[in-house]
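User: Need the bound-state model for 2-acetamido-2-deoxy-beta-D-glucopyranose:
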Amino acid sequence: MDRRNQSTVSEFVLLGLTNSWEIQLLLSVFSFLFYLASMMGNLVIVFTVTLDAHLHFPMYFLLANLSVIDVLFCSIIAPKMICDIFKKRKSISFCGCFTQIFFSHAVGGTEMVLLIAMAFDRYVAICKPLHYLTVMSPRMCLYFVVTSWVIGFIHSLIQVVFVVNLPFCGPNVLDSFYCDLPRLLRLACTNTQELEFMVTVNSGLISVGSFIVLVISYIFILFTVWKHSSGGSSKAISTLSAHITVVVLFFGPLMFFYTWPSPTSNLDKYLAIFDAFITPFLNPVIYTFRNKEMKAAMRRLCSHVVHYWKIS
Ligand SMILES: *[C@@H]1O[C@H](CO)[C@@H](O)[C@H](O)[C@H]1NC(C)=O
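Assistant: Bound-state model below.
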């Protein structure tokens, strides 16, 4: 950030979601509840998987990692947005703005790659069940997790490095409730057309690319299940449909956001709310309400906790 002294902008002003006081109140209550619920739901998953030896399988490790990502993801934007709702003038510092952009892209990119790892895990479990434990070894699992983080961070770094060095010489009002890259680019006092293109390609590629890979893998897996359909397949289908639901909910808004020509309507703001609050909340709901082992593990965990309280 050595070029920062050339820019005169030291903070950005966020316009928030809407001017209407009633809608803001409604949104703040709604966001706060969803934020709390996502944090709790995901933390419960992380604790359950870590503490219960019955769940020490690749699928649950990946699931717990997804929950860690969701906890981080909803903590990047939500707390500041909730605190800001009642402020007349919402602002964010130059550094704060870029930190938000950097981490939301890094964690978002990581989540996409991790979803692919989870699809691969299901592919091996369903299509090559005899080799499952050898292919998805703990080392392989760790390799997937580390790779996701590395790809996520590289994806984010490439964009932020270019944008942070742009001259921001005056205009500093962002019509959004958080720092988003497409809107920020338009505040730079230089022609950013190429950079806008780069951001669209970079973010578009990782989101559309991951989405296509995921859709193809799940079609392939569903086809395999359907071909060998027997007694055991209904469980497989229920797990698969949970995964597919998460994929569609996560990518739907994102792809719209980054591939839509220009953010002129307000629709993309509301879609961003969806990704920031609702998807991290839905992950635990979708995975746990449909998974017997997970529910059993939570009951065990609960009874341990109650037991511990009673004796102490
Ligand atoms: C994330 O995945 C790695 C590799 O499988 C695993 O060792 C780790 O425990 C997981 N993290 C959580 C929070 O479960």
